[in-house]
TrEMBL record:
Domain of life: Eukaryota
Keyword Chloroplast assigned: no
Name of the protein in its database record: Ribonuclease P protein subunit p29
InterPro entries named among the record's database cross-references: RNase_P/MRP_Rpp29-subunit, RNase_P/MRP_Rpp29_sf, Rof/RNase_P-like, Rpp29/RNP1
Transmembrane segments annotated in the record for this chain: none
GO biological process: rRNA processing; tRNA 5'-leader removal
């Protein structure tokens, strides 16, 4: 067992080591009050920086031909199941497409719906060669539709200056491509305004 003087010396030495910034007078003052707060310098934790996952650029996607459909896959019959899925999706979206359904409601739902798998026909166009093209929409971009026809031909039809008709369960809807130049993801959030007359 240590004597009182040795214990006092140990405590003083310990406090000096623990609180190097404090003077002896301040340490003695704290001891007389019987309240000692030891300093503790904690090391700052360095947060590991998260690496952002970078996607491909548009140029890289084109070079890798990510969105191109191979010629052997360009067959109308292959995409008929997709069309059946699309019809079921629209029926669910429009609550069954009943005969008493409001045409405006169906039209507003179709404007925001995903059209991949829909069968469309070009009914009007400033370019006569586009009129009459009918097929399943395989890809929708901001300015064009990629359509596979019954003749197994992949057609790229611009939205600008074209009117498309779309029929499902007796409801025929018309899409004015000039007012439809948006990506599918952007279109779902857009508010379409009702207009009396629309030019091609």
């Amino acid at each position: 067992p240590q004597g009182s003087e040795e214990a006092k010396a140990f405590v003083n030495a310990f406090l000096k080591r623990s609180m190097p910034k404090m003077k002896d007078e301040a340490i003695q003052d704290m001891l007389t009050r019987k309240a000692v707060v030891l300093e503790h310098h904690s090391k700052k934790k360095i947060k590991p920086q998260r690496k952002k996952t970078k996607g491909f650029t548009a140029k890289q996607r084109r070079e890798m031909r990510l969105f191109e459909i191979e010629p052997e896959q360009q067959r109308y019959a292959l995409f008929l199941p997709l069309h059946e899925l699309w019809k079921q999706y629209i029926r669910d979206l429009c609550h069954g497409l009943k005969p008493d359904a409001q045409p405006q409601m169906v039209q507003s739902k179709l404007l925001k719906a995903d059209l991949h798998g829909a069968i469309v026909t070009v009914t009007k166009s400033k370019c006569p060669s586009y009129v009459g093209i009918t097929g399943i929409i395989l890809q929708e971009f901001k300015h064009v539709f990629k359509i596979i026809t019954k003749e197994d031909k992949l057609k790229v039809v611009p939205k600008l200056n074209n009117v498309f008709s779309l029929e499902i369960d007796g409801f025929i809807s018309y899409i004015y491509g000039s007012k439809f130049q948006l990506r599918a993801s952007e279109r779902s959030a857009k508010k379409f305004k009702l207009k009396g007359t629309i030019d091609l």
